[in-house]
UniProtKB/TrEMBL annotation:
One of its GO terms (cellular component) is cytoplasm. It is an enzyme of class 2 (transferase). Its main location: nucleus. This is Wee1-like protein kinase.
Amino acid sequence: MAAVNENAIQQHLNFSSCGEEDSSDSSVEDWVPVSVTLISPSSACRTPRVQRHRTRSVTVSPPAPTSPIPYSAWRKLRLCDSPSTPKSLLSKSALSYSSSKPCHSQRVLCLPNAPDRVPAVNINPFTPDTVRRNSRHCKRKNLRSDGDDDDGCRSKETQTSSEDESYFLPSKRPAVPALMLSRYESEFLELGRIGVGEFGAVYRCVKRLDGCMYAIKRLRRPLAGSANEQLALKEVYAHAVLGHHPHVVRYYSAWAEDDHMIIQNEYCDGGSLLDVLTEKEEQGEFFREPELRDLLLQVSMGLKYIHSSGLVHLDIKPSNIFICHRPSSSSGGAGDSEEEDDAYPSSGVVYKIGDLGHVTSISSPQVEEGDSRFLACEILREDYTHLPKADIFALGLTVLLAAGAPPLPQNGDEWHSLRQAQLPSLPQELTPPLRNLTQMMLDPDPAVRPSASALCRHPVLRRERAGKLATQLRRELNVEKFRTAMLERELQEARLAATSPQQSPLTSGRATSGAGAGSDSGSGSLSRPGRRLVGRNVARSMSFGCLGH
Ligand SMILES: Nc1ncnc2c1ncn2[C@@H]1O[C@H](COP(=O)(O)OP(=O)(O)OP(=O)(O)O)[C@@H](O)[C@H]1O
Ligand SMILES: [Mg+2]
C-alpha cells in the first residue's frame, strides 16, 4: 500500500511542479496561446488520464507555425503525462527532436516531423551486442579501405548505423510523439510479449534512454482492491531489499500506471527453466547430471543470498527460474570480480531466481502459499519454524523435473507419497551421491534437509565447479605455453640475426649502438637492418642531460 501512496504522492508532487516549470525562451513565452484554457496546467495536472486525452486531441493537428500551443505548455504537459520521469531527461529528449536547434520556436515546429530523423531509442554503445556490431562494422570498413586510419573508424563507430536503427526501430513509427504517452510508452519501446502468468503479462522492452533490454511485468488487473495487490507489492518490496546478486533476477524500477503495477526487471534472454524443460521434453531429452549439478548449485547460491537476507522465496519452480546466456566475450561489467566469476559458470548459462511475489520474512512470516505442486508438507500444516527449508524442498522437486520426472501432482495420494520420501521414477539413473542429496532435500523432516548454504559447499556440487575450474586452468595454461613458445621463437630469431655473417660491420655498429649492451652475442654482434632488438617502442633520440644543470 505504501508504494501506491508513495506513487500517488510522487504524481501529486510532479503535477504541482508543473506550474513552476519555466521556459527560458521568452520569445515563445510571449505568445498569447489561443487555446491555453483547454490545457491549463493547474486543472489538467490533477487528472492525468483526462489530461492525457486532452493533450492527444491537441496533437492531432500538428503545430504549424501558427500553432496556439506555446513551448512552455508542451513541456508542462509532458511532465504531467510522465509523472516519475526526471524533468532533465524529458527536456533533453525534447532537444533531440530538434536536429539543428536553430531557435526555440522552430523546436516546436519540428516536433511532429522530426521523429523520422531521430531513432526511437538510444543505442547504448557498451552493450555486448553493440560492441559486436561496431567491431564488425569497423572490420568491414578496414577491409574496404586499408588506408583508413583508426580515427576514421572511431568516428564512424559513434554514428548510428542504419543497421543499428533497423534493429531497434519498428517499421513504421507512430505519428504521436512519445512525449504524449504514459511513462511506459514514453520511456520504453515494447518489442513483444514474452510471457503470461497468473499475475499478468511480461513484455520485452528497450529503454529509449539507455538502449538496454528489460523485462517489464504489467499487472493484469487494476491494483486497487485486487487480491494481487499484496503479491505485486511483495515483489517490489523484496526486490528493493535484496539488491543485486548474480543468481537473482535484477530489479530496476516499479511504478503504478492507470492503477496497474508495472515492474521493470532484468531481461533474461534464455527465458524460464520451464521453457527449456518443455522444449527438451518435446525432443525426448532431459538434463544430464552435470547440468543438474550446475542448476542445483546456481539456484542454491541465489537461495543462500535470499535466506541470508532474512527472506524466503516460497514459490521456487521451473517457471520462476530464469536463464541468461553470458556473452562469450564479455566486455567488462558483471562477472569481472573474483566472486562474480565464481558465480558465472564456464558453461555460459546463468540461472536466476525471479518472480518474488510470494517472498516473506523468515522472522515474521506472512505466508501466501505458492504452487501446490511444489509445496512442502509443513507449510500446509502452517508450521513455519523451518521456512527456508520449504524453498529447499521445492528446489529438490525442480531438480527432479529437470532430470525427467513426470509432471508433479497437485494433490491426492501421489502428492502425499512424494512428501513421504518416495521419489518418482526417472528416465535416467542418477549417481548415488546426487540421488542421496536430492532425497535429503525432499526429506519429510525439514530439519534434515540441507540449507542453501550447505548445498553451496556440498562436494557433490562443488566437484562440478572444481572440474570446470580445472578446464579453465588448463585452457589458461595452454595460452601461456603458446606465449612462451612465441617468445622463444623470437629470441631464437634475434640470436640468429645477431650472429648472421651477411651483416656489414657498419650496420652491426648501428645495431649495437641502438641496442646498447642488450645483445647477448658478445662483441661484433650483428642485427637485421632497421630492426632494433631492445627498446623497439622507444624513440631513438634520447637525452639524459639534466635540465638546468
Ligand atoms: N525477467 C524476465 N526475463 C525473461 N522472461 C521473463 C522474465 N520475467 C518473466 N518472464 C516470462 O514471463 C513469464 C511469467 O512471468 P512471472 O513468473 O514473473 O509471472 P507470473 O504471473 O507469476 O507467472 P507464473 O504464475 O507462471 O509464475 C515467465 O514464465 C517467463 O516466460
Ligand atoms: Mg511466475
